[in-house]
């Protein structure tokens, strides 16, 4: 290994060793201690508003110099209001129920051995993110609240902002009896550190990428450490023949247009060939400002649509465009979603309960909804408080992942001298 | 890609596509259908005893020709008794509670949306194993019972036996309304198929290696698909100063000597420097036939011990050898286990409940036991019926993994027209 390669590796090994020590201490802390410390962080963020704004101004100036787009600069920007929002977010996480120590189940074996599965923190979490500096506070709070040590690797364009936010965490945690290494920020911006984190098996227990599709794709492709993420949200709404017309129109328009850039947005509308009000449904979507790209069957009924190409059915637009096509009832919808879906969130609108239940059972996605908008795909809307992300993988945790998904369990057995015959 | 490389890849893609279709069907089957089919498999295995013995005889003859060791030949060998045991195992799995469809939790949101997390099968499981043909029946039964399709890749030395067992599954499953592709056996013995399975992301959802350490190590090193496994069981028993002397001796001897070759066997004995009966404890272990390799502190008290080298503390002997050393109370034991343990199973013997609870909380292993032998680390002993394996990873499932660990969950939301404001 050349020196160039070994530096990031050594850095990650060092951060990881500190994090592992911190994790051992964090795992033993009562909920109240973590809560008090996070409330102090929230207070500290508010008190450090000026310092954080000043640090952010350095990032913004460098960003403008480097020609970042207005959208990227907006993501990077912190002002007093956004900093207050960040502090509120940390305080909200402090108010969540602590999953650590929760007993999943207990059984007494015939020999008297009492076995319980008890929730414990995962250990060391790596967060890899881009330009939004608020992720620093958000992700760190969720990890600390669930007893995990975290290694944060934010975008180089936000490094000054991230350092300022991290300084508040380090100070407030240490002042409240938590290890300062519970939250560590990768101190350098060398991109090779990302690669070293992704391959740090046994050092980092789970990686959560937070950012755009190219970041998530890179992380998923390179990681040897388990990754919690979703790549695409190619979400379907299926309007069944039995759907209430007004409800169908309201849900479809909301699912697509409430916010087009979120991962829970509808991308594809599937309409049962037997649904009696197809033109009105398409009209509602168009009136809301959505471009509708139609399949051939649909265009025979609603002629003035952009034709959908093969590619459209596999596209996550994240803007005011939807593909729409006719399918033959439930079976047609299930086949279509199995072929083109991304296992994120899919919904049916139907009055026929039997069909709806068959849809809920038959669609292999993290979230399946009946008579509700796909835009509910969100940890807060699910009552989880906040989320570290939405997962479309099949193991460990699925859908919105919050504190519980940042824990694992161990088996604890209490005996009275049992030996195995 | 050369033709040589693409053949195994294409084969795995084909097996995977068939498995995915079968999985979709399996996921929808009621528990009774799966149970009936598995009972028919058990009956079929008994009825096919002669055919299976004949197939096994071919493997045994080839194995003897190829110079397999007596131990390997014994693992490979099937006779009427072992086939009956295999059938009993399948019938026992058929009798386990089906986790599929189990509701983990349900919440009604303020807007009336009712959200439940419901257990569903993982999908497609790959099993990679060595010479024991009974794994074919055992693993296939667990996967089918939990609604998963399985791709079995057994050792080339057992291919005829595996084919005969697989034929019984295929026939009995299809005759009872299950897809024949629910259980597939890789039809060729090319070792490159293992590599293709390990990198079949999105095709195979989880790999379970069943076999020796070199197999598990290869799978863990090469896999891009999530792996459920443990590599080592370097398990500790810590005898605290407060331990009951007779209990400590009984547990230590049982943990090491009941069966030395199992992954739950004790490998390292840690004795609190303040424990009052150290020589008697070592004597009990030696009387049971165990070689004790002692650290310097222990040898100062019990002189006639083989000196333990640095390597000994990180060695899984799997035979009648134990390393043993003195530690300074609970804190010393926790540090030692953190440094040398393999996160499998560790136990404390103590009468002091406060110390014991601190040990249970502080040891970061899949299984932690108080006043019980580490040899209980076993799915059947934990009341799980049977196990697909013991996992020392931190995500998804930990410790003995049975039917529940072969499932994941999805979020099901039932609304009445809710849209997100």
Automatic annotation (TrEMBL), chains A, B:
Pfam families named in the record: Aldedh (PF00171)
EC number: 1.2.1.41
Listed transmembrane segments: none
Compartmental location: Cytoplasm
Major subcellular site: cytoplasm
An MF annotation (GO) of this entry: glutamate-5-semialdehyde dehydrogenase activity
Reaction(s) catalysed (UniProt annotation): L-glutamate 5-semialdehyde + phosphate + NADP(+) = L-glutamyl 5-phosphate + NADPH + H(+)
Domain Aldehyde dehydrogenase, first and last residues per copy: 15-274
PANTHER family: DELTA-1-PYRROLINE-5-CARBOXYLATE SYNTHASE (PTHR11063:SF8), GLUTAMATE SEMIALDEHYDE DEHYDROGENASE (PTHR11063)
Function: Catalyzes the NADPH-dependent reduction of L-glutamate 5-phosphate into L-glutamate 5-semialdehyde and phosphate. The product spontaneously undergoes cyclization to form 1-pyrroline-5-carboxylate.
Protein name: Gamma-glutamyl phosphate reductase
């Amino acid at each position: 290994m050349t020196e160039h390669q070994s530096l990031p590796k050594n850095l990650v090994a060092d951060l990881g060793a500190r994090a592992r020590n911190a994790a051992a201490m964090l795992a033993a802390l009562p909920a109240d201690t973590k809560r008090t410390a996070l409330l102090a962080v929230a207070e500290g963020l508010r008190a450090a508003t000026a310092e954080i704004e000043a640090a952010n101004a350095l990032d913004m100036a460098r960003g403008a110099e480097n020609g970042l787009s207005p959208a990227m600069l907006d993501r990077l920007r912190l002002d007093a209001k956004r900093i207050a929002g960040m502090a509120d977010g940390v305080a909200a996480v402090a108010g969540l129920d602590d999953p650590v120590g929760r007993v999943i189940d207990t059984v007494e074996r015939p020999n008297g051995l009492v076995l319980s599965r008890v929730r414990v923190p995962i250990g060391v979490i790596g967060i890899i993110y881009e330009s939004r500096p608020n992720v620093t506070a958000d992700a760190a709070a969720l990890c600390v609240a669930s007893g995990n040590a975290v290694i944060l690797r934010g975008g180089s364009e936000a490094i000054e902002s991230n350092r300022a936010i991290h300084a508040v965490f380090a100070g407030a945690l240490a002042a409240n009896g938590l290890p300062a290494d519970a939250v560590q920020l990768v101190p350098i911006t060398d991109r090779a550190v990302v690669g070293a984190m992704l391959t740090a098996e046994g050092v980092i227990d789970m990686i959560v990428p937070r950012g755009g599709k190219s970041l998530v794709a890179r992380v998923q492709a390179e990681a040897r450490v388990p990754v919690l993420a979703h790549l695409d949200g190619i979400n379907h709404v299926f309007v069944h023949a039995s759907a209430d017309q007004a409800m169908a129109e309201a849900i479809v328009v909301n699912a697509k247009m409430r916010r087009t850039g979120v991962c829970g947005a509808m991308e594809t509308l599937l309409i049962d060939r037997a649904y009696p009000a197809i033109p009105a449904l398409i009209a509602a979507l168009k009136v809301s400002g959505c471009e509708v790209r139609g399949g051939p069957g649909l265009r025979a009924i609603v002629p003035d649509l952009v034709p959908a190409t093969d590619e459209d059915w596999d596209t996550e637009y994240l803007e005011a465009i939807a593909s729409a096509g006719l399918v033959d009832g439930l079976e047609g919808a299930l086949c279509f979603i199995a072929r083109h879906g991304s296992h994120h969130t899919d919904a049916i609108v139907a009055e026929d309960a039997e069909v709806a239940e068959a849809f809920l059972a038959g669609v292999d996605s993290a979230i399946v909804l009946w008579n509700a908008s796909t835009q509910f795909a969100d940890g807060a809307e699910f009552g989880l408080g906040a989320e570290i992300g939405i997962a479309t993988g099949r193991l460990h945790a699925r859908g919105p992942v919050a504190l519980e998904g940042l824990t694992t369990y161990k088996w604890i057995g209490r005996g009275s001298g049992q030996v195995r015959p």
